[in-house]
Specification:
CATH class: Mainly Beta
Order of helices and strands: HEEEEEHEEEEEEHH
Number of domains: 1
CATH topology: OB fold (Dihydrolipoamide Acetyltransferase, E2P)
Shape: globular
Structural class: alpha+beta
Largest sheet: 6 strands, mixed
Length: 165
């Protein structure tokens, strides 16, 4: 039975030394988050703004009775804001036992990336903060910036979103 499972995993691209990542776009860049952190993907809907929160905290959303804080990743990354489109989605993730939503331009795919194909994040010196990256993965001809959700959303962010919820 185990060999049949292993063979099936190889046929669909899963390996023992790899992980699955939900990939999404912000502008022309492709990012990935560990699929095990993702609870669901939801089309963008209007959120309720909360005063006195950091600018990248968009507000909160009622998701089937649970109040979920929403983080605008473009703002968090210092990217220019754009108008939302039909492709704009909220990726609902779990960070430090808290449910949060991430607004992204669009969802791309679920990719299987072997550990051997993930390199440490490049070092750009003190001017560019890459501490929120686990690494850069290669899948075919695509490069994926793999996010470390615990570092991306600091303890202060988690506390601010918890207060907003």
């Amino acid at each position: 039975m185990e060999s049949a499972t292993k063979e099936l995993n190889q046929q669909i691209g899963l390996t023992d030394d790899g992980s699955q990542f939900l990939t999404f776009n912000l502008g022309d860049e492709l990012y990935g988050v560990d699929i095990l952190r993702v609870q669901e993907i939801k089309g963008y809907t209007t959120v309720t703004k909360i005063p006195n929160t950091p600018s990248h905290i968009k507000g909160v959303l009622n998701l089937r009775g649970t109040i979920v804080p929403i983080v605008e990743l473009r703002t968090k990354f210092g990217m220019p804001t754009i108008d939302y489109t039909a492709f704009t989605v909220i990726i609902v993730v779990v960070v430090r036992d808290k449910v949060m939503g991430l607004v992204v331009d669009s969802v791309s795919d679920v990719l299987n990336i072997d550990k051997k194909d993930i390199q440490p994040p490049p070092q750009f010196g003190a001017m560019v903060d890459v501490s929120f990256l686990n690494g850069v993965g290669k899948s075919g001809d695509k490069l994926v910036a793999i996010l470390d959700m615990d570092r991306l959303l600091s303890e202060g962010d988690v506390q601010a979103t918890a207060a907003a919820a």
